[in-house]
Amino acid sequence: MLQLYIPAIHYSIDTNNEDGSLDLGETKAITLQLEHSLVSLSKWESKWKKPFLSKDAKTREETIDYFKHMTITKNVDPLVFEYLPTDIFTKIEAYIEDSMTATWFSDKEDHKKSKDIITAEIIYYWMIAQNIPMECQKWHLNRLMTLIRVCSIKNAPDKKVDKRAAMTHRGALNQARRAKMNSKG
């Protein structure tokens, strides 16, 4: 969970006349609690009818709306999101990108990038297929995705080694050992 203190924000609109600007007031200072989870992803996708995890750029309105769906804090003035300071906006985006896990995968592992469009329903399917408890839908989304990948790897059948290739490899190793022994003796 991400906790952010948002100071009171004074907001106004430039009126482009001699008055200069129209004073609209001020939001109260608040501590926001946000969670980037499958739950927030699902709510956002049900509203926007498109996959959040796609590489397609999101508008500022879509991004701000996702922040709203991430928010656990109750009764937040909607203007808080409209006037988010740049540093807070950046912190939220960094939190979304954070892996939230110590698990890493080597490049040698056979993990092909899927061409499938990943939506909330696909992730729920993966959870069900891997017998991952539903309470994990509230985890940080990147941590949940890592768990799904680990379960997939651990539950995959062992790869069968091609017997001919294995014999050729062992033969080459034995030949190299013999050559090494003969050169010493």
Task: Describe this protein's structure.
The chain has helices spanning 38-48, 60-70, 78-82, 86-97, 120-129, 141-155, 163-184, and strands at residues 2-6, 10-14, 21-26, 30-34. It is mainly α and 185 residues long. The protein has one domain. The N and C termini lie far apart (66 Å).
Secondary structure layout:
Layout (H helix, E strand, L loop, with lengths): L1 E5 L3 E5 L6 E6 L3 E5 L3 H11 L11 H11 L7 H5 L3 H12 L22 H10 L11 H15 L7 H22 L1
Antiparallel strand pairs: 1-4, 2-3
Strand order of the largest sheet: 1-4
- Number of individual domains: 1
Structural class: mainly alpha
Give the count of helical stretches.
Answer: 7
Q: Could you estimate the helical fraction of the residues in percent?
A: 40-55%
Average predicted local confidence, pLDDT: 87
Low-confidence stretches: none
Separation, N- and C-terminal Cα atoms: 66 Å
Categorize the overall geometry.
elongated
Please report the total strand number as a whole number.
Answer: 4
Indicate the proportion of strand residues.
5-15%
What's the SSE pattern?
EEEEHHHHHHH
The biggest beta sheet is recorded as:
2 strands, antiparallel
What is the radius of gyration computed over CA atoms, rounded to a whole number of angstroms?
Answer: 26 Å
